[in-house]
Specification:
Shape: globular
Distance between the termini: 24 Å
Number of domains: 1
Structural class: mainly beta
Strand order of the largest sheet: 1-2-3-4-5-6
Number of helices: 2
Radius of gyration: 15 Å
């Protein structure tokens, strides 16, 4: 049976920009049983910027925590805390609170659809996307994926 999601599979191990220790790792021959279409559509409806998806394992190399195999969503142009009293705030750094460089990462179990975790990331280039095995437009019947 052909792998409908092959183009969305993480191709290499790579760091997620703007995080201290999170990396994406390929899932090998794993076949997801949870269809990410509805979750993707909900994120796209709520996110002010583009949403990108990959099928991967998220590994925190500093603390050994592993999530996945999972659908990993990257929502761009999210707004972060902006008050001077906030622990991490653009008001302290001079960065824009709402920027395409800001990413919210949501990790969803690829078997059950249960949320596994979420965290923030930062891509100063605003061009980073996960290194996937193909182009998301190759996913049959799901032209929405980025």
């Amino acid at each position: 049976m052909p792998d409908r999601y092959e183009p969305l599979r993480q191709a290499t191990t790579e760091s997620i920009p703007g995080t201290f220790s999170y990396v994406l790792e390929p899932v090998g021959g794993y076949h997801p049983s949870f269809n990410p279409d509805a979750t993707y559509a909900k994120l796209v409806a709520r996110a002010p910027g583009p949403v990108t998806i990959t099928l991967a394992t998220v590994h925190d190399i500093d603390f050994g925590r592993t999530w996945g195999p999972a659908w990993v969503f990257f929502a761009r142009d999210v707004c972060f805390a902006t008050e001077k009293g906030d622990v991490v705030s653009p008001a302290r750094s001079g960065n824009d609170a709402c920027s395409d460089a800001n990413m919210w990462v949501q990790v969803i179990d690829a078997s059950s659809g249960d949320p596994l975790g979420s965290f923030t990331a930062y891509d100063g280039t605003t061009t980073w996307i996960p290194d996937r095995e193909g182009d998301p437009t190759q996913v049959a019947g799901a032209t929405r994926f980025h």
